[in-house]
Amino acid sequence: MKIRSVSHNNRKKTFEVRTSTRRLVLPFSKADPSPTIQDPVTQLSVDPEAGREAFTYILHSGRTGTVHIEQVLEYNQDPTYLRNLLLYRLTLEAQKRIAQSPLSKREIVRRLGTSAAQLYRLLDQTNDRKSVDQVLALLQVLNCEVDLVVRTKTA
C-alpha cells in the first residue's frame, strides 16, 4: 500500500497518513523517536526510496525517524493487513511442517486434490491471493490441528 501524503497534527499529537483509499492516524508515541512539545517535527515527507511505503520525519533536535505503512496499518487494526499477517504465519508453519513431514510433495498434492503449481503457490509466503481455507486444508493434510485463540489484548 502506497502513501499518498502525510501530515502531522501537534494538537492531537498524531501523524495523519493518506493512502489511495483510506485516511489513517498514528500517535506520536508509537513513533521512534517520538516528537514532543520540546522536540517537535520540523520536516515530514513520504519516503520515495522506500517505494512510498514509509514516511520520514526530522525533529527539531535533528533526530530522524522513519515509519513504515505496516506500522500504521497494524496500529489501526486494518483487516486486510491482519488477514495477510495470519496467512504469512500459517504459511511459514506449513513450510516448516512440510520439511518435517514423511509425506512426499506428490502425495501432498494428491491428498489436496490440486496441482504441484498450486502447492507451490500455497507455500509462497509472499502470495497474499491465497485463502486461509487453502492453507488450513494443507495443514490438515500435514496432520496438524489448528486452534484459533481469541484473547483480550494487553497494553
**C-alpha termini separation:** 27 Å
How many domain regions?
Answer: 2
Helix-strand sequence: EEEEEEHHHHH
Give the proportion of residues in helices.
25-40%
Calculate Rg over CA atoms: 21 Å
* Overall geometry: elongated
Q: Assign the structural class, choosing from mainly alpha, mainly beta, alpha/beta, alpha+beta, or little secondary structure.
A: alpha+beta
Order of strands, main sheet, comes to: 1-2-3
Residue fraction in strands: 15-25%
**Uncertain residue segments:** none
Mean pLDDT: 95
Annotate the secondary structure layout.
Elements lengths: L2 E7 L4 E6 L3 E5 L13 E6 L7 E6 L4 E5 H7 L3 H22 L4 H8 L3 H8 L8 H10 L14
Antiparallel strand pairs: 1-2, 2-3, 4-5, 5-6
Helix pairs in contact: 2-5
Describe this structure in words.
The protein has 155 residues and is of the alpha+beta class. The chain folds into 2 domains: 3-75; 79-141, 434 Repressor (Amino-terminal Domain) (Orthogonal Bundle), CATH 1.10.260. Helix content is 35%, strand content 23%. It has helices at 69-75, 79-100, 105-112, 116-123, 132-141, and strands at 3-9, 14-19, 23-27, 41-46, 54-59, 64-68. The strands form 2 sheets. Strands 1-2-3 form a 3-stranded antiparallel beta sheet, with helices on one face. Strands 4-5-6 form a 3-stranded antiparallel beta sheet. Strand 4 (41-46) and strand 5 form a beta hairpin. Helix 2 runs parallel beside helix 5 (132-141). It starts with a strand and ends in a 14-residue tail after the last helix. The model has no long low-confidence stretch (mean pLDDT 95).
